[in-house]
Automatic annotation (TrEMBL), chains A, B:
Enzyme Commission number: 3.5.4.19
Domain Phosphoribosyl-AMP cyclohydrolase positions: 30-104
Gene coding for it: hisI
Taxon lineage: Bacteria, Pseudomonadati, Pseudomonadota, Gammaproteobacteria, Cellvibrionales
Role, per record: Catalyzes the hydrolysis of the adenine ring of phosphoribosyl-AMP.
Protein known as: Phosphoribosyl-AMP cyclohydrolase
Subunit organization: Homodimer.
Amino acid sequence: MNDFLNDIKFNEQGLVAAIAQCVHSKDVLMMAWMNAEAVTLTLQEQRAVYYSRSRQSLWRKGEQSGNVQKLHRFALDCDGDTILLTVEQVGGIACHTGRGNCFYKTASDNGWQINQNVIKSPKAMYNE
Amino acid sequence: MNDFLNDIKFNEQGLVAAIAQCVHSKDVLMMAWMNAEAVTLTLQEQRAVYYSRSRQSLWRKGEQSGNVQKLHRFALDCDGDTILLTVEQVGGIACHTGRGNCFYKTASDNGWQINQNVIKSPKAMYNE
């Protein structure tokens, strides 16, 4: 486990970028950050554990909403500063807005275009 | 154009993370950074233009190697701090090591496993 950490280049804040991609659709779901502990827990628990910069604490994805990301593959890029997680997105919702993924705004000639519907309202996701 | 920039949350260094994904295979190719000028040029030129943190200058992807990334879709995530480019990767090589993409190291029980062959040597890519 320590060997993996040695090859990861954490930034000045002790964080590394982590992209999550759906193992089935190959959609890019989200991008978040991990500290060393989050990396270790992700590998140990075989589910995505991030570090929340706003809350300054570990963030087990899906802990509240149930939308856990089960790990299929943990890859590191050539220069060691970006992780790519291939995951099974339980519930099919990765975004806190209740959409399948976070990249629902697309640049068009008329400004941003919203191209994903909300599957479940945030209220329903977090208060059930 | 300015409208797009207004919605992007650049970090303290004036940068935003940008993920490139292949429009055909849906493989995640790489992650790099953009400043405001790189964002503007990417949208204007319809090709990926990044900001190289090591060289501290604009980096028109493929300028030296020919491995240009033609833009198909420019998406922004829910909190505005990550861009997802859907691109056509000219030459099929996104990584400076000569591989199809940068995520060729996978965590396994026996350490990192290399799971992509080099398509073209870096020497051949940059010196031709």
